[in-house]
Amino acid sequence: xxxxxxxxxxxxxxxxxxxxxxxxxxxxxxxxxxxxxxxxxxxxxxxxxxxxxxxxxxxxxxxxxxxxxxxxxxxxxxxxxxxxxxxxxxxxxxxxxxxxxxxxxxxxxxxxxxxxxxxxxxxxxxxxxxxxxxxxxxxxxxxxxxxxxxxxxxxxxxxxxxxxxxxxxxxxxxxxxxxxxxxxxxxxxxxxxxxxxxxxxxxxxxxxxxxxxxxxxxxxxxxxxxxxxxxxxxxxxxxxxxxxxxxxxxxxxxxxxxxxxxxxxxxxxxxxxxxxxxxxxxxxxxxxxxxxxxxxxxxxxxxxxxxxxxxxxxxxxxxxxxxxxxxxxxxxxxxxxxxxxxxxxxxxxxxxxxxxxxxxxxxxxxxxxxxxxxxxxxxxxxxxxxxxxxxxxxxxxxxxxxxxxxxxxxxxxxxxxxxxxxxxxxxxxxxxxxxxxxxxxxxxxxxx
Length: 448
Hints:
The chain has about 450 residues and is mainly beta. Helices cover about 5% and strands about 30% of the residues. It is built from 4 helices and 31 strands. Strands 1-31-30-29 form a 4-stranded antiparallel sheet, with no helix packed on it. It has a 4-stranded antiparallel sheet with strand order 2-3-4-5, with no helix packed on it.
């Protein structure tokens, strides 16, 4: 009995240590790279022999718990934090993952890809938060029918309305089909069955950047509207039919929408706040939403019609590569980037511009904080935690950085605030910048 009371006393008086989130100085980028990756050394090579790596290409935020982040590291595995980056652990058996996606409401469900290098190439699924991974046998069989490197997949995009609907891009040619290039593959049942989509003439065998142009929260697009680009210079192509003509995959389903490219095919997109596009034609864009995408050359690109047409906006930016545009609902951010380093450009600052967009007739990018901070590489992906107002940036060989913003709401047009339901709740913890726009989730899409 005395032992029981002693153990009870110890339990009740135990100190449970919970690691706090990193301390931020608002407006200043903070390095939150895992300590286990503090020795990143550019570029490529074989880490086991020369210590070189391309760094950290992808950061993924858990939509239902923004304290959980995943970070992929070339030849250095998959890393996870549950305290917003204060502490990290390497998890799972993937040795050189490229991309990772988290289920929008179930933190235990993840997808990941590994391509180019390592011992665990392929498309992977986890049902326990990344601790263990399985590769669907159907994926391996299907990949083997396409290529002698059938597991060599890199970029991944998931339908925001259907976790089972996934697009993957190949890094190796589909030589089993007698082709020197490759395309993308699609599953609509979580990896049990697959469909191959050839791409228009000119696409190469390297990685393709592929995204769904679909935001249910903003009532834009649908699961059949996709955008693809690679580094061949063929251009950006869009489909609104899921790559199908008369129910079958067909390159005729793709329309060229911009004459550009992106190095190694990696890129990302960003939807603005509603009302950001002040000068947009309301008959074509009734809610004033702008879509931004990464591009090589004189800055990123923008679209007022969910990707049907694009224009460049790079005034004030160096001529270089910009894989993505990030934002917090008030300001946009970009930085020169390349795989592992800045491709000879030297340390570079972030550039910023107001998210309020008057068709970019009067705005110019400026160095963030007058260039007070510079970085050896820029981001492939940025991800915004709208609950805590933190913008995360995975900067290849420069590691993972985070910016605490002021959280000031971005522009919402007055006609929306008077026509939407005042009782609408926030879209989600990770996208609270859309909270006053929630009632638009129901009904038909504004664009296809």
